[in-house]
Specification:
The complex is a heterodimer of chains A (70) and B (178). Chain A is built from 5 helices and 2 strands. Chain A starts with a strand and ends in a 5-residue tail after the last strand. The relative contact order of chain A is 0.26. Helix content of chain A is 56%, strand content 9%. Helix content of chain B is 79%, strand content 0%. In chain B, 20% of the residues are buried. The mean pLDDT of chain B is 87. The chains are: A mainly alpha (70), B mainly alpha (178). Chains A and B meet through helix 3 of A and loops of B.
Chain lengths: 70, 178
């Protein structure tokens, strides 16, 4: 998919674990894992807002666009 | 799921089983009739529905085998169709029905229904053309059923199968929305 999720990069920068993020954002570990591995098909604004709030970042830090070669 | 839905679903399971058993008996009876008509024709009067096509056999073997072929294939396909319906009604989870298994089975049911419908129409036409040539085919009418109804049913079931496929896509997308 052309949209890439850089959640792991931001998490590493903030030195926050998946468990901690899960507790603070209120998402299940499995859902966060789906998001982190790029398997998610969509993300709600409310989820994005909560993640940005906890990680103190912008949506663009978490999501990026890479042009598909094929 | 409400109590009424639950009751209707259990009733549906029982009815499907009854129809399946009936169709198995019919298919089995016709197979037995066919075997006896070939190897021991004198006992055919005591067998299922007293279906005696010996006159047709004497006049034209090919007509006899074609008509019996239609009878057997249609009866077996109907039994198989209801076997698939039984598997479906036993394994479907009404609280979460949108999965690939249910979609596959519904599509399969539509294909079987369409095949049965087409075969019935062809068999009926063949029987009519044999009737015009002086063969006695009125005994076979009870076995054909309504071919057009089967074809219509196949179309409706196919539409349901397509909607189910779309439902599965939507559910998958919903499951992967974080």
């Amino acid at each position: 998919m052309a949209i890439v999720v850089n959640l792991d990069v931001v998490m590493a920068r903030r030195k926050i674990s998946l468990n901690e993020l899960s507790d603070k954002v209120g998402l299940t570990l499995s859902n966060l894992s789906i998001l982190k591995t790029g398997k998610a098909k969509a993300i709600r604004f409310s989820t994005l807002e909560a993640i940005c709030d906890v990680l103190e970042c912008q949506p663009g830090d978490i999501l990026g666009y890479v042009r598909d070669e094929h | 799921m409400s109590k009424t839905d639950n009751f209707v679903f259990i009733a549906l399971q029982v009815i499907t089983w009854i129809i399946f058993v009936g169709l198995c008996i019919e298919a089995g009876g016709l197979i037995t009739n066919f075997a006896f008509s070939l190897f021991k024709p004198e006992v055919i009067q005591n067998l299922y529905q007293k279906l005696d096509l010996s006159e047709m056999y004497e006049r034209s073997k090919s007509a006899y085998f074609i008509m019996y072929g239609f009878l057997l294939v249609i009866a077996i396909l109907k039994a198989v169709l209801f076997y698939i319906v039984i598997i479906l009604v036993h394994k479907i989870d009404l609280s979460k029905p949108f999965n690939s298994f249910v979609s596959r089975k519904i599509t399969l049911i539509s294909y079987y229904t369409l095949s049965i419908g087409i075969l019935i129409v062809i068999a009926r036409q063949s029987a009519e053309s044999l009737l015009q040539r002086g063969f006695e085919t009125d005994k076979l009418d009870q076995f054909w059923g309504d071919g057009q109804a089967f074809i219509l049913m196949a179309a409706v079931i196919y539409v349901i199968a397509v909607i189910f496929k779309k439902g599965i896509d939507i559910q998958n997308e919903n499951d992967l929305t974080i």
